[in-house]
């Protein structure tokens, strides 16, 4: 994959033909392409808002409907699970029935799901509200994959070459605006349990509007005349043959794995953000603010980056630089989110995460289409989204499974009626068997220390190992151990805390236990 995505749909076609020459060649752009983009963007925005509408107020929703935190997580996770098989079907549907009928079908499914999930909040007595909530979310989940990758096909069929990346950016980032709406609207509307019916009703409005506009205003799947030479030469392989070509395209597979993994990380970040932060005393409003800043800076970055790439065609460079910077910011979030009182640091990190990571999503989507010619735009973009949904489901399931329920601390703001989940790794302190007494902190970044060990390798000699929970276990270890550092009150300080203490403006408390 070169910087200009050479060898793809744009190879050898040069810049757009001048208007006079384009008219002679039969190329024409239609004003209604913007109406089509508006309808698709509104549908994308509504669907994303429905996806994460429960996440910012997960604790209140759980208490109101008498659900566990795991059940609330499934209301978001079901999107990722359902969209994996439905995404493959959506690729075939988009190429078979056309963009118009696919959009109308998705709009009706989205509207039906938003209404169905609101039924438990009505005056009717419903024995199992979770079934209705899950059913409504499942109907909306059938729509997600198609509305995410449809902008790439719309841009290729309806827009001239110099507007394709920008059109793709508008359609794709509308999904992020929907997530922004959920992060801001849900905490604002739901202060107490009695506000939940009002919130569910509000989310029906954009879904109904998108359904009305799609049914009444969309007339054609493709324009009567192509907008450019690239669209005129747009011939696609059949469905199965196209998938085979994609799997044998090394550049595409590399991009799909990296980009799909990025989508998975962003999905897990947004779905679990409030639950991670409430344990350390941050309010749901602050978690919503962090999610909102993630989206806002991502949209602003995507706007600037799309205009730049439209002119320079440096797709690959933009994606590589963006994801390298994103990796650094992800590490910073993993560390700082486990500390108390770091509001400024968290706000900055979430903003940078959106600026570096979310901004390259439309660029990577367009690059996937460019490097997969002659496979259809729907298949090229759709397979990447399906891989991203699978990665997102894996991230959410693993993080939830590896977290541990513990007694609720005084700093927690979680309101689900249960002890909050502990998301941080355990510190296992292992004294040296016969010889000078030393300690080592073996970091288990995958979850609670009970039985899950980090890099501290064990062998035959036994010793007492105490984690931060205060429970003991019989362990042994090999290799030299690092001497411990203690706070003024005698409690051990973790080496990582000493590093963060030097970097962050507020002093770190010594760990409990």
TrEMBL record:
> Chief subcellular site?
membrane
**Keyword Lipid metabolism assigned:** no
Record's GO cellular component, any one? membrane
Q: Which Gene3D superfamilies match?
A: MFS general substrate transporter like domains (1.20.1250.20)
- State the CDD domains in the record: MFS_MFSD7 (cd17399)
Record's bilayer topology term: Multi-pass membrane protein
Q: What is the designated name of this protein?
A: Solute carrier family 49 member 3
Please give the PANTHER family that the UniProt record associates with this protein. Answer: MAJOR FACILITATOR SUPERFAMILY PROTEIN-RELATED, SOLUTE CARRIER FAMILY 49 MEMBER A3
Quote the Pfam families the UniProt record gives.
MFS_1 (PF07690)
Cellular compartment(s): Membrane
GO MF, one example: transmembrane transporter activity
InterPro entries referenced in this protein's UniProt entry, alphabetically? FLVCR1-2_SLC49-like, MFS, MFS_trans_sf
